[in-house]
Amino acid sequence: MAFGPHLLLAVLEGLVTAAVLSLTALGLSLVFGVMRIVNVAHGEFFMLGAVLAWAVANALGGHPALGFVAALVIAPLIVGAVAWLAERLVLSRLNYNPESTIVATIGLLYIIQQLALTFYGPEARPVAPPFNVRLSLPWFGYSAYKLSIIATAALLLIATWLVLTRTKIGLTMRATQYDSETAQAFGIPVGRVYAGVFALGAMLAALAAVLIVPISQAHYLMGQDPLLLSFIVVIIGGLGSLRGTVVAAVLIGVSDGVVSMFFSPTLAKMIATLAVALVLVFRPQGLFGTAAR
Amino acid sequence: MSGDDRSAKVYALHLAVLAVLFALNFVLPAYYHGLMARIMVLAVFAMGYNVLFGYAGLLSLGHAMFFAAGMYGTGLTIVHFGFSVPLAFVSGIACGAVLAFVIGLLALRTSGVAFMIVTMMFAQVFALSLIYFAGWTGGDQGLVIPQPARILNLGAAFDLTDPTVRYMAALALFAAALFATLALVRSRHGRVLVAIRENEERTKMLGYDTFANKLAAVTASGTISAAAGAAFALLFGYVGANFAGVQYSILPLLWVLLGGAATTLGPLLGTLVMYVVTDTASSFTSAWLLIVGVVLILLVLFFPKGILGTLRARWLGWLP
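Structure tokens for the assembled complex are given below, as produced in the milestone run.
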């Protein structure tokens, strides 16, 4: 294959990564933006989404599309419920102290990971894609399902944006983010908003995982890379900024795809991580964000 | 209580702990004897972590890189350059010290949550580079240091693979680290670190160079952690990339939180208790990560001062 088509393939793969990544990172970014806490267990919510997708699709049987659609609805709901519980039972009692919450979410990370290992097992299992169509490009065939991931993720992002900017729920969330004490004084149930945001963030990660699981596989350790990449994206995009998150996800996803295809995936991760650590050190507001208040 | 009286009590307690550890060498059965040596080395790692987290109040999520720097600085120089034991040990510590100084210079430009994430990311880069340069480091497999390379020649030859020699070497390292941290936290520098933890702005206003003090803390903390890593490589003969992973950044945090942050003996107690708990639990479940997770959450929820921290707050105010 010549260089041009090779590059196109790399960019396409990168866009798929970017689509999934922007959903996952948006979840992390929302939680950080509104609650000012770092959720280290975010990757485990992603993993839980994928594992539950396999469980749902496997329990239903029948046509793959049926199982997939069911998983797309049920898995995020369960993950959201787990996150909601964790927020109410643990995080809210810590008064969202940054250090305590990090330690607590590390604990949550280990608990979810171990439970997944115990009940799901160490195997990597695939979920059948809802449809199996190959688009023939002049140089190579490409899975139509992968392209549909990009489209679905774009739709979900637009939907989240609409919820945030055009609805009362979004207004409440933004008010809480802007000044939680004043919001409380104006009768906004800040505790419930926090629980809802934490659940929403986890659900976005779970949705991303259900989308990706037909082309990767569900595995109990699969949460680590998305966590790290989401951190990278959220930091580069500026903490708490939706537009920045999406731009950064595309940037990181595509460059990760290109570097992984032409060099080594380990090297790609090393460079991205180092670059981001340095961004955080020298430009803490992110490349696109404005300085934090 | 007068100051001298307090000091005498503190030294008596620390010497008593060392005496108990020394005596345990002769009574412990073989399995626990080996485990105790391991616990002492890892407790040194936790003590290094405690200098930064407990006293200076900086939560690092990347200390595995300092431990691994000591480990690889020792292991690689033995395997590739044929260094002798003392030379390799020193080179391991030097690697950790230099790395900690450089990371400190960079990471201390941030604070709070950003500091945690930056240290985690640097550690991740370090772990990935160990895997990337697998030709040198053995990658995921790691390297085994052969037994002949682990003989310490100081006039007489000490074989570090021998259980008693290993135990005594671990105890010596532990004692050195214990008195080093004790001296550090009782020094002027140690008190400035506590002041920074409690109120950085005010400390700065009082005329202290907080950046220099924090940098010194990161370097000291990284160096002690590296010494633990270097000793681990020599005493247990294995150097592996998993010691650079996220888990080994979290474990010292767990041990310190459990034993009591900002107490000199807390790291040992935390490491010991955690090993006893997981060891006991492992007889009926393999889910030790679950225990780690649950203990972490219970600690931050109900017991944020840890064992010795609570004792100090309630009854033993003189505990360092």
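The CA atoms of residues 65 and 123 of chain B lie 5 Å apart. Chain B has one domain: 3-314. Further analysis is deferred to the final report.
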